[in-house]
Description:
The protein is α/β, with parallel strands linked by helices and 259 residues long. Helix content is 36%, strand content 25%. It starts with a strand and ends with a helix.
Amino acid sequence: MNKNLEIELPSTGAPLLQAESLLQAESVxxxxxxxxxxxxxxxxxxxxxxxxxxxxxxxxxxxGKSTLLGLLAGLDTPTSGEVLLDGKPFSKLxxxxxxxxxxxxxxxxxxxxxxxxxxxxxxxxxxxxxxxxAASPRKTASHWLQRVGLEHRLKHFPATLSGGEQQxxxxxxxxxxxxxxxxxxxxxxxxxHANGGRIGELLFDLNRESGTALVLVTHDQQLAKRCQRHxxxxxxxxxxxxxxxxxxxxxxxxxxxxx
Length: 259
């Protein structure tokens, strides 16, 4: 079975040329030691993302979504296969090399925020801008905190913010550097309905206005539906699904968790 998933531009009636890939996984697998031998987390993942495209990755808890996202973002390395970023080897670089490449092109929104506790909200968002040598980091950071609805929390430290507020600071930090590629692990997971909708709008504003490609791991089916591709992880393998089959899987998972 060919599982190579091409993220393509919408058809305009003319033949499509193969778009230059921004992110590519080639036969990626991940195994870890287990009490009874090696445990396979991911197997034979083939995946291509073109510049400016958006993709949602869904699946039941424990299916390997966050593991896959970490491999694609270079936070971990695959046991087999390779990840390419902007057409160049990425996963085969050492940790420092991956960090440099990631900093040049990408931003990452972590499920557990990873804010710097000794910096206030404004300083947390300013930090990557200062590291990149961006002009007017304070002004840019203030702008993005305002866009996520935290203009009244600029001087607050992470310990004084709610989980949802910390998530919005993390999102503002990612948006502020205007990356070519944004990885997000459950970007609306800690937010109420209103703020989740606001962040969803911001994600796709960034995609539309700046051409930022999006790779979103999410349980939010409404957010997933807005992406150009909707992929499902099942037992360590990645498949493309129709909306009807994804909704059926989501309903089954909800019923199973309720039992």
